[in-house]
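To whoever is on call:

I kicked off a structure prediction for a single chain this morning and the downstream step that reads the tokens threw a length-mismatch warning. I double-checked the sequence; it's 276 residues and nothing unusual in it as far as I can see. Pasting both halves so you can look.
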Amino acid sequence: MSLVNAVLRPVFDFLLAPFAALPPMVPIALVSLLVSILMLLVFKRTSNQPALARVKRRIHAGIFEIRLFNDDLGAILRAQNRILRANLTYLRHTLWPMVFILPPVVLVMAQLQFHYAYEGLRPGQRALLEVDLARQAGSGERPQVRLDLPAGLRAETGAVWIPGESQLLWRLLAERDGDYELGLEIDGAPRISKTVRVTPKAVRLSPERVDSGFLSQLLYPAEPPLPASSPARAIRISYPEREVSVLGFRMYWMIPFLVLSIVFAFALRGVFKVTI
């Protein structure tokens, strides 16, 4: 998974860079359109289109039967039974295409999450730096730690040690715009780093750098994983969460992305001659 993320990060950075200064809904809508086209093409190639068309005709026939014989309870129940069985058949025919559609869509959404779910820090804004240590590293005495900050970032507190959580905390102050990399040395282990971005633009932000486990990298693909030998199992920066504006309403970016992907897919199914 780390290798896949290493390939996708620069690709999405390059594709989304021209839209960094625009409202997030512009690139979200464009990516939704591209994803809907991809889903239609894959669905067309991997599904049994004639069988889906037949099933949809049976469903429509059952609906018309209910309307025609709305005074005959027996006919209505038989039609409903046929509609139910046809719907189950429809679901069976769509399961196989989902095997090919869902993985790439999930990877796309995982990358978009770290472009549009968070806002970069602003000059004068404070953030919490959290370092979770492996239990064996933090289960006893306070670890020896050194935090190196580049010019543009400043630590307003020393390291706060929470033994019960095996966690180190600092409060940082962003002093000016820029892309930064802070360094940590813990108990003499090799130096580890964490990116911090101070910017008003919609760019890739990494709120958490985690280990190389499959699930960790699927959920947090925005930064390379921590080395296996690192005493830290996660490093976090408390970026503010972002909400996008849709017709004056503020909402989580994934809602308009999913809605638009579905709307575009249904709107374009005739153009690509796809039965869905």
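Update from on-call: the warning came from a stale cache, not from the record. Cleared it. Sanity check on the structure: The first helix runs from residue 2 to 16.
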